[in-house]
Amino acid sequence: MKFSFELLKTDKTGARLGRMSTPHGEFATPVFMPVGTKAAVKAVSPEELEAAGAGIILANTYHLYLRPGHELIRDLGGLHSFMHWAGPILTDSGGFQVFSLGKLRQLDETGVSFRSHLDGAKCTLTPESAIEVQEALGADIIMPLDECTPYPAEREYAVNSMNLTHRWALRCKKAKKDNGQALFGIVQGGMYEDLRRESAKAVTEIGFDGYALGGLSVGEEKPLMYGIIARSAPLLPAASPRYLMGVGTPEDLVYAVEHGIDMFDCVMPTRNARNGTLFTRSGKLVIKNGQYEKDSRPVEDGCGCYTCGNYSRAYLRHLYMSGEMLGSRLNTIHNLFYYAALMRQMQRAIKEDAFAQFKRGFYSGLERP
Amino acid sequence: MKFSFELLKTDKTGARLGRMSTPHGEFATPVFMPVGTKAAVKAVSPEELEAAGAGIILANTYHLYLRPGHELIRDLGGLHSFMHWAGPILTDSGGFQVFSLGKLRQLDETGVSFRSHLDGAKCTLTPESAIEVQEALGADIIMPLDECTPYPAEREYAVNSMNLTHRWALRCKKAKKDNGQALFGIVQGGMYEDLRRESAKAVTEIGFDGYALGGLSVGEEKPLMYGIIARSAPLLPAASPRYLMGVGTPEDLVYAVEHGIDMFDCVMPTRNARNGTLFTRSGKLVIKNGQYEKDSRPVEDGCGCYTCGNYSRAYLRHLYMSGEMLGSRLNTIHNLFYYAALMRQMQRAIKEDAFAQFKRGFYSGLERP
Question: Which of residues 26-65 of A touch B (CB under 8 A)?
Answer without folding.
Answer: 38-40, 42-45
